[in-house]
Each structure stands twice: as structure tokens, then as C-alpha cells.
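Shift notes (night). Ran NAD-dependent succinate-semialdehyde dehydrogenase while the centrifuge was going.
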Amino acid sequence: MIRHLKSPALFAWIDRMPALGTPVSVRTFEVSNPSTGELLAELPDMGVEETRSAIDKAYDAQPGWAALTARERSDILWRWHQLIVDHADDLAAILTAEMGKPLTEAKSEVTHAAAYPQWYAEEANRIYGETISAPSTDRRMLVIKQPIGVVGTITPWNFPASMVARKISPALAAGCTIVLKPAEQTPLVAGAMFALAHQAGFPEGVVNRIYASEGDAVGRELCSNAKVRKISFTGSTEVGRLLMRQCSDQIKKVSLELGGNAPFIVFDDADIDAAVDGAIQAKFRNGGQTCVSANRLYVQSGVHDEFVGKFAEKVCQLSVGDGFDPCIFIGPLIDKRALAKIESHIADAIAKGGIVRCGGDRVGMKGTLFQPTVLTEVSRDMTVAQEETFGPLAPIIRFEDADQVVREANDTIYGLAAYFYASNLKRVWRVAEALEYGMVGINTGRMSSEAAPFGGIKQSGIGREGSRHGLEDYLEMKYLCMGGI
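Came back to this:
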């Protein structure tokens, strides 16, 4: 049993979700705690047949769900929101057990997740059309918006609760039905949230989930099945490219939230103490395992040594361990591959002249714990300056002037998030406008909100999640021209 779980029934519901009935496959896969290696659950390993069945259920349910009034859909979303709030402690415990995230941080994620059905319960009532002035008196011209249909969604392991809510809440508000495949590393909290959705009163077939140890077969079916009208995916750019190609034959609509390589820039007029705190937040939240994590820290020469000294001192004090320990700031990496990647980035940097100011080693022999690490004397030819690490590694690069650092910050195929600290208002505006990113945090290390559009440009993705713009991604625009009036 998962520690700190107040309602064991919630965990039991995960396997009893009625949306798909009995899986066709007899195969199973295991879900384990990355901190300890402890086995948490054994789930049915579903494939093409179960995915097709879920799509059929969603397709059959979609007309009836779309036919409800916006207020009726809104009421169910409100109930789902309240159930998430009511079960927040248990959802956080499940999340910490399967992903390793510190429990306090897991509770914060669940709170953030609950905000999305609440927000879109309100936005469901604000799907507006428009009238257009006609060129003649015997015509009327107007635009209406309708749900796109069945949506296939694939969510990542690093925010397994909030990503479920952020993806499916706007789709449900718009009148779409859902087939969701959660990451194989973290399917349990997604299952619990779907169990709560069922309790909230979503009709049979509206919300459907697929458990699978690998996503290839499920992804191909979602992309190739003509009953699915849209794919929403959060994950790596490589997989995003593959899904986009698989959807191209049907010109299927896609929303992709992909990889990042976020710069974090500290100018010489910045509040250094605030910048240090913001860098720790942007870099080490979730152990650096976020798509918007600060991956390259640029610090202007005039404040470089001060920043490095204060930053390294605080980073060295960050505690690492089991997420259920209330004193822990950083939990485990998700798996052994993540460990190998951070170690290879550090080794490459050291070989090319980088200096480890703190950290740099694994913690213990079991699990996937790694010390928060600060690297200095980092140059652009190092792997850590070119690739996203996705771990608790902060490489610091010295720079001289604003034009130089903006060029280097933009010199990447990615364009998801960027951060910078400065006080000069002219500089703030110019740098904010010059950075080629979908989101820019100015004098803050955290900027996610259900009210704001989340997403990137370049090869960091297509579309936006959150805000009113997130709802538009699940609606089709239809022009009506009425003659003979």
C-alpha cells in the first residue's frame, strides 16, 4: 500500500475504471517507486485492440456529449474539480510514490491540476460565435464554433496529474470526448483522476484511458484511426515529429508541447538575491525534470562571481531523498537512463574545462537519486550547453553584453520558455521581445497558470494549453451564409 494514502479505495478504483471493461491482452506491466524500487502496481498492458475499442466508445459518446448545453458540461467539470480538491492528499501520495516528486511539490501539482477543470468549467459558457455584415440585404452571415470530435491525448511522466487535467479539461468543455494514454512510468495518478471523473458524472464513453508499457502501438492507432480528429501530445520533440508524420495522411489536427532548452539570463542590473532564488526554482523544481526547466544559465561578467557564489552555496544545501521525507527538496530521477544522461553531460563538461562547484555524484546505491550540481566555466561546445539535461544540473555561462547573450539564447531549434532578470525597463522590453520563445519569465522563475497560454515556437511545439486560447484548439469554426432572408 502506498504510504500516506488516506483512502485506500481511491487506489483500488484505478483498476476498476469501467470505461474499457476487461482488457483483451493478458500481458501486464509493473509500476515501481523510483526512490526505492518498490513495486506499486501491476497493470494490464493494453495495445491496438483496446485502443480501438476506446476510440469507438468515445466516437459513439461524442454526439450526445456535444449536444449537452455548455452549462451541463460545466456542472460536471465543476464536480470533477471539487473531487480532485477533496482527494488532493491521496492524489499527491500516489504521485509521489510513482514519480518520486517531494510530497509538498506533489500537493502543489494536484492543486494546479484542479485549477484546469475549474477554469474550463467557466470557459465552457464563453464559446462565442460572431455575425458578419453581409454585402446584400437578402443575406445573413455568421460564424459558429463546434467541437472537433474525438481527441487522442498522450501525457508525460513528469507532471502526471496536471498534464491530464490541462489536456482534457478544455476538450471536455468544448464538447469533445477523450482517449488518453498516460506515461507508462506514472499511470496510477492518471487512473485515479479518471476514477474521480467517472464519479463526477461524465457519461459512459466520454473519458477513456489506456494503460500500456510502450506507446508505439497506441500512438499509431490514435494517429491512423479516422474517428480521432485531433492528437494532443506532451513529450520529446523526436516523438512529436513522429506523431506529426503519422497524422499527416489524414491532415489531422495536432497540438504538440515538446522539448525545451530554456535560457536563464542574469544581467548586471539584476537583483542578484532574487535571481538566485528564481534560478533555484526554475532549475531544480521537480529535480530539473520539467520542459521549462532552466537548462543554460547565462550570467553577465559584472555579477558572475557574486551570483555563482550565492547560487552554489544555496544549491549545496538542497536536500535529496525519498519524496515522502518532509525535509526533502529534490526527489529521484525517473529512471536509470536519466542518471546516465546527467553523468555523461557532467563528464563531457569536465573533459572540456568545466568545473564542478558542488554536487556531481549519485546519492546511495539504490534508486535514482542524484546530487544537485553546479558547473562553471561552461562553453558553448559542451553537450550541456546544446542538449536538454532534464535533471538537477545547472551549467553557468559567462557573457559580456545583451546582444551577445540574446543571440546565444536564440541559437537553438527549441523555443519553449526563457527567463531573465534585469531592472532597466528599456532592457526588459527589448530582451523580452527579442527572445524567440513562446513564454518568457521576467524576474520570476515560475510562470505556469491555467489562465495563461502555455506553449512554444520553433520545434518546441504547436498550439497552446491553458487560457481561453487552449479552448480554441478543440473547436472548429463554421461559416454560415443564409440567403433569401
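Residues 262-448 form a domain with the Aldehyde Dehydrogenase; Chain A, domain 2 fold (CATH 3.40.309.10). Residues 272 and 306 are 8 Å apart (CA to CA).
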